[in-house]
Amino acid sequence: MTNVLSTRQHNFGDSSCFSVSFVSATRKCFKYTRSQTPPQKQVSSASGRNVGCSAVFVQTQIAFDGATKPKFQSDLIAHLASQMIQELSQPQDAFVGFVGSQPKQDQDICCKYTLTCRRSGDLQCTGLSWNATGAMLCAAFGRSDLTGWCNKSGILCCWSLFRPEFNPECPTCSVEHSSCFTTIACHPSQPSLMAAGSFDGEVLIYDLADSCDVLKACSNISDYSHREPVSSLQWNRNRGAFTASIDAYQLVSLSSDGKILWWSLATIKHATAEISGHLPYPVRGVTLACNPELTLLTNMAASSPIVGGTSMALAESCVMIGSEGGKILRCHPRKKNIKKLFAGSDSNIHWDKSAIDFFDNLPPCITSKLIKHVELWANSVSRQVVSAKDIFVSKPPLRYVFPAPTGVTEYEGHVGPITMISMSPFHRRVFLSVGVDGYAKLWSTMQRRALMTMRDTSCIHLADGLYASGWSKARPLVFAVAGDGGVVRIHDLGNRRPMLPAVELKAPMPASANDTDRRILALQFNHKQRNFLATGNAAGHVHVWRLSWGLSNQSSHEHEKLQSCIEHMEEKGA
Description:
By secondary structure, this protein is an alpha+beta fold. Helix content is 16%, strand content 30%. It has eleven helices and 32 strands. Strand 17 (319-323) and strand 18 form a beta hairpin. It is globular, with a radius of gyration of 36 Å. Residues 1-8, 29-33 and 41-51 have low confidence and may be disordered.
């Protein structure tokens, strides 16, 4: 077989193939087609010879004559469009109150991170704050049980949770101070800026973006600042300044010495080679007195009892203060126009804008006395232009520069010190307070009695207190409280029984931890990452919780539900 195949001859030749043609169904339409563009020659040069080709673009789709379009189609579309717009503009209540089937709240909640710092040692987490972007968590470490002098160093730690190199056991940055930190507050619009308060009474401003000197400014310890531990710090929007200006937000500090001071970043004296930056003076201040009316009308401010402030919350037109004795105070710092006083003065002294702004915050009975005092000092030192700094250089009495606030309202409060006051970010009249008595109370600024009182009945000890509270930044009806026992209780006012917690979160702790280490001292909801909640305890651990979808997303008409709920409670308590 092999020989036969090998001797077979292979004859190859040309052959003509048969062609097959098809009749096009659209052949009749081609007569209407025409060339859209004339043929264009495209010549490209090549080595050896020139090659040319021509391309012709031909439209093969059937041309549509717009004139033959039926008129009734455009009229129909216009009619249907008007009906659709009318239907869309009407409110739809088909899904009002609808809640889909969801798993239990606690099934989707987990402790995502446990943040620690080796340098903190035996310090406690005394304050928490998320920065402006919500990507960095800042924690203040100190001791909340100190009495007398502080001989321990405090530390600030910041964790960038969304960086690739994030390590829960290694902060992104940390700053140490000579005394313990008591509170912290990040700037609302500048992510790298934050303020902290110390046990010695200092107010410190830090800028993490400054690689040379992180400490931007620090206040002095004097009669015109704080001499006791700073218990609370809040950033307040300055309505008289532009949003992009450095004075757009003012820092408000509260101390156990009874002073509430307003600080402006515009007054900061930046650091030089000889001295460090510092806050020279507050631009405003009041002193909490037990009898503010008597303090204003007489010169008995020195002997009048001072109310030590433990917590503070700012509203649009008032300041809520929690005191050591359990009182809750509301004061209304208001401005007035006092330019007429300077216009009618016969003195040759010129008052600059900073001095006039400082006088704007003083009551009329104090303003004239302070003006006379400063004028006498200015004449003695031959000073013709007086600024706000010169007012403090003249050493006026404290009752002149930090008078008692006017229009003070006192609420029933708690039995024992109030540890935290939180204003609702969704309702201007609602605030929450917790104290060492273990009660959490919901208040309205219109009533002196609490709208609702809550206490965990499962507490083992009657002395279990609450030390932290906060409102959700995403859900108007949700708030959380925490304290002894290491349990975070999240309440939902939309539930049938809002006094009972909707969810209880127990922070992971070693079995050897005692009751004091389990105590939660700080709590903060994230205003950007709405499903993040941070807590800090007395053991120096910071826990970041990931909340469920139901606790971090608003339901329909939740603002209206909060409004109706508060109005119902107010009518019931009236």
